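[Structure tokenization] protein backbone as discrete codes
[Encoding] learned vocabulary of local backbone shapes
[Protein] chain in single-letter code, fold in tokens
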Amino acid sequence: MDHEEIAVTLRELGAATLGESGARSMPPRIRPVWPGAVVAGPAYPVRCTAGDNLAIHVAVARAPAGSVLVVDVGDVPARGYWGEVLTTGALSRGLAGLVIDGGVRDVAALERLAFPVFSRMVALPGATKSSRGTVGVDTEVAGVRVSWGDWVVGDVDGVVVVPGSDLEATIAAGQKRAAGELGYFSALREGATTLELLGLDASLVDEGGAPI
């Protein structure tokens, strides 16, 4: 598959299915900042000095088209590290989206521009632009290791990182899981229970008497 076919396949499988199929799940604090945001693309890792977003500006200028910036901002998350200006630049460079373990702002503009952003929070205070950082270098974001060559997928359920070395296996496992769930849906509509389908041991749960 080429990059666009991979991206379409990953978007269709979704973060939840991929997270159960070998992808690395980011913590629940990383959420879409506007309803309906969906992204799938090659990860471009970025590390900022806390409180400073110079590395993000460099990443927007340097990252290959189609990339998703995946950004660590250190221990000062409550800054507006990203907003409408960077979004406009990112769109002009053909970038696919942003995942950041920190704050963003100008949310209405991000939604209007349909640029997928997944962040820890929305924050008003700005960031400086004068400190060291890294771009395109392996880093850790929200506790998840991210390398150039990995893929990142984000949707309403959250964000996952698919290691580049495991991409084919993760897609295959995700497709198998998705196909199995289709069978579950059909069986459930016909009256089966999840206890039966998943082989669960109901005897572990104490039951009370019927209500009067």
Summary: The first strand starts at residue 24 and ends at 25. The mean pLDDT is 96.
